[in-house]
């Protein structure tokens, strides 16, 4: 036993003497710096102006009406001011249960500020919290921290509907009775509009039918046509035969209106035969004018400009002569008719006077007893 212990100690001493020869010197390792330490005032300001934010919703899934907490942490410069938003609408899907609790912790050139929101959700599904952006006011400027991405998952507390039944819409307590006039009033409006249009059309048609057109006096029309023919001056333009024919046409149109037998379809001889019995028409002058005009129109006899003007003037003179005779005849007939009416009224007055006298004498004889 003692021999074995001595051998072991000897082996250990040999190993301890040999090991220093194989050992190598160990040099210290350099660990690279992962964060650069600012070496100037500008770098310090730049590092202090960096804003970092974090949002945590706990728990991330709740039931309707259960409370949950939103924790928002921002790292801002020490002299910065953070304005935390609130939910002011009490009818919102997510509502606040208590005022916002804000804590702050200084960390050198920056400050960590934490806001805790005690919230409650009143709908199911993945709901946005509806918080506006937080505002950080620092000397370097105004920054916004977005809180719009914060959401909460709300589970329903109702049991699952395995029957998948869709409820029918609710019925009214009493069915509404619609009066007939509410159903047929569009048709009544259409009928009234059509009746109004028919009445307006009928009234307009009656006005057109009953319109009295004032007849233009044939003599005034003839004089107007002669003056227009004279202004045209066809004889000066070489249209002498046409000027004579138009003058005769105006004359015959006037005669057809004053003398019913002098229709326009008659020839010159037939016209003279028809108007010979009329004392208003100067027969010899009319016959001579028609003969000259027929020779120019049908025989193509040449006529000068002065001759064409004279024939036009003669046709107008015959029209004026017939009109004067017609006016005189009308005045004579009117005077005779007036005298006849006066004579009839006088005879009627005399007859009534005679009858009255006879009646008075008869009454007087009856009173005196004389038969």
Please explain how this structure is put together.
The protein is an alpha+beta fold and 371 residues long. Among the domains are: 42-155, Immunoglobulins (Immunoglobulin-like, Sandwich); 218-338. 49% of the residues lie in helices and 18% in strands. Strand 6 (101-107) and strand 7 form a beta hairpin. Helix 5 runs parallel beside helix 8 (305-368) and helix 6 runs antiparallel to helix 7 (283-298). The longest helix has 64 residues, at 305-368. The protein is elongated and about 140 Å long. The N and C termini lie far apart (218 Å).
Write the SSE topology.
Layout: H1 2-22, H2 41-48, E1 52-58, E2 61-63, E3 67-77, E4 81-83, E5 94-96, E6 101-107, E7 110-121, E8 125-128, E9 134-138, E10 141-145, E11 151-155, H3 180-210, H4 218-232, H5 240-258, H6 268-275, H7 283-298, H8 305-368
Parallel strand pairs: 2-11
Antiparallel strand pairs: 1-3, 3-7, 4-9, 5-7, 6-7, 8-11, 9-10
Proportion of residues in β-strands: 15-25%
The poorly predicted ranges are 1-6, 8-48
Shape: elongated
The secondary structure category is: alpha+beta
Q: What is the terminal separation in angstroms?
A: 218 Å
Count of discrete alpha- or pi-helical segments spanning 4 or more residues: 8
Mind telling me the C-alpha Rg? 66 Å
Helix share bin: 40-55%
Count all strands and give the number: 11
Task: Please summarize the sheet with the most strands.
Answer: 5 strands, antiparallel
